TrEMBL record:
<comment type="function">
    <text>Mitochondrial iron transporter that mediates iron uptake. Probably required for heme synthesis of hemoproteins and Fe-S cluster assembly in non-erythroid cells.</text>
</comment>
<keyword id="KW-0408">Iron</keyword>
<feature type="compositionally biased region" description="Low complexity">
    <location>
        <begin position="18"/>
        <end position="27"/>
    </location>
</feature>
<keyword id="KW-0406">Ion transport</keyword>
<dbReference type="InterPro" id="IPR023395">
    <property type="entry name" value="MCP_dom_sf"/>
</dbReference>
<keyword id="KW-0813">Transport</keyword>
<keyword id="KW-0496">Mitochondrion</keyword>
<dbReference type="GO" id="GO:0048250">
    <property type="term" value="P:iron import into the mitochondrion"/>
</dbReference>
<feature type="repeat" description="Solcar">
    <location>
        <begin position="259"/>
        <end position="352"/>
    </location>
</feature>
<feature type="region of interest" description="Disordered">
    <location>
        <begin position="1"/>
        <end position="28"/>
    </location>
</feature>
<keyword id="KW-1133">Transmembrane helix</keyword>
<keyword id="KW-0999">Mitochondrion inner membrane</keyword>
<protein>
    <submittedName>
        <fullName>Mitoferrin-2</fullName>
    </submittedName>
</protein>
<keyword id="KW-0677">Repeat</keyword>
<keyword id="KW-0410">Iron transport</keyword>
<feature type="repeat" description="Solcar">
    <location>
        <begin position="168"/>
        <end position="252"/>
    </location>
</feature>
<dbReference type="Pfam" id="PF00153">
    <property type="entry name" value="Mito_carr"/>
</dbReference>
Length: 364
């Protein structure tokens, strides 16, 4: 239809036939304008006088407009895949981070940097040693990230509609990230405890079941959530900074909010680095609560480090102020590709699932 190719000036000129316009086109345009003006005069929908725009049959669905009724499922599936891949790919660096956060490491486990630590662990303890505990981490990461992203997307939209209707609200993004963290950490905390105990140097645990049984029998079920409040104290500001930074960068790099892998990777990496550096002291305390490091326990008369305040005090007693930033290099190095992977994989699967659902709905 040639009407679609006309310039806006041709439409603004009224219904009269212009150069190159056939009488049939003029009649069609005249009728369309009369209907549009009639709706506009009656206070009808805004923009009714716009000519209809034909959709390109080859174009994909609107990326952010997920199919009705499938939104939560889409976010959960995409989030689960992103979480599992993120933790699996970055697990060796996570092992190094845990060891570098040790307050009084064994002389054989003192490392200058991440690469040296990874090389020495592989050379002295075996090729697969940095991967010990990966299975329990992947098992926990799937449901944890499914809840995490689904909750975030739902709350982000709901709160943005209240705070800034029709736009993006950084307050809504941060608040949604904080609430999503509550669900994520509740599902992930037991896996974190087991994982970090298996990552420590000279860990007596070679299998997940051995670690679970020992912790349960010696310390009780509460040990699996001993660091929960500290983890929330760390992750709530971490995720607030993370999501606000990510959404802020997306407004600049990807204002149309389309599927743009490079913008997702760059925004995710920058957001992860900023949030990781800011919350390292809390991560050191969380590691201490999870591992109950034996040498650090010697400075604590209660036998077990059971709370955030006690953990903060113990870290300071053992290593001073600098101890709060142990492993900061490994933590930032871990978070940059980790969040980049998480966001790029999540956005990719969200896009693919959305496109397939729209194609299925169109073919019905």
């Amino acid at each position: 239809m040639e009407l679609e190719g006309r310039s806006a000036g041709g439409v603004a000129g009224g219904p009269a036939a212009g150069p190159g316009r056939s009488p049939g086109e003029s009649a069609l345009l005249d009728g369309w304008l009369q209907r549009g003006v009639g709706r506009g005069a009656g206070g009808g929908e805004a923009g009714a006088c716009r000519p209809p725009v034909r959709q390109d049959s080859d174009s994909g669905p609107d990326y952010e407009a997920l199919p009705a009724g499938a939104t939560v499922t889409t976010h959960m599936v995409a989030g689960a895949v992103a979480g599992i891949l993120e933790h699996c790919v970055m697990y060796p660096i996570d092992c190094v981070k845990t060891r570098m956060q040790s307050l009084q490491p064994d002389p054989a486990a003192r490392y200058r940097n991440v690469l040296e630590a990874l090389w020495r662990i592989i050379r002295t303890e075996g090729l697969w040693r940095p991967m010990r505990g990966l299975n329990v981490t992947a098992t926990g990461a799937g449901p944890a990230h499914a809840l995490y992203f689904a909750c975030y997307e739902k709350l982000k939209k709901t709160l943005s509609d209240v705070i800034h209707p029709g736009g993006n609200s950084h307050i809504a993004n941060g608040a949604a990230g904080c609430v999503a963290t509550l669900l994520h950490d509740a599902a992930m905390n037991p896996a974190e405890v087991i994982k970090q105990r298996m990552q420590m140097y000279n860990s007596p645990y070679h299998r997940v079941t051995d670690c679970v049984r020992a912790v349960w029998q010696n310390e009780g079920a509460g040990a699996f959530y001993r660091s929960y409040t500290t983890q929330l104290t760390m992750n709530v500001p971490f995720q607030a900074i993370h999501f606000m930074t990510y959404e802020f960068l997306q407004e600049h790099f990807n204002p149309q909010r389309r599927y743009n892998p490079s913008s997702h990777v760059l925004s995710g990496a920058c957001a992860g680095a900023v949030a990781a550096a800011a919350t390292t002291p809390l991560d050191v305390c969380k590691t201490l609560l999870n591992t109950q490091e034996s040498l650090a326990l010697n400075s604590n008369i209660t036998g077990h480090i059971t709370g955030m305040a006690t953990a903060f005090r113990t870290v300071y007693q053992v290593g001073g102020v600098t101890a709060y930033f142990r492993g900061v290099q490994a933590r930032v190095i871990y978070q940059i590709p980790s969040t980049a992977i998480a966001w790029s994989v999540y956005e990719f699967f969200k896009y693919v699932i959305t496109k397939r659902q729209e194609e299925w709905r169109a073919g019905k």
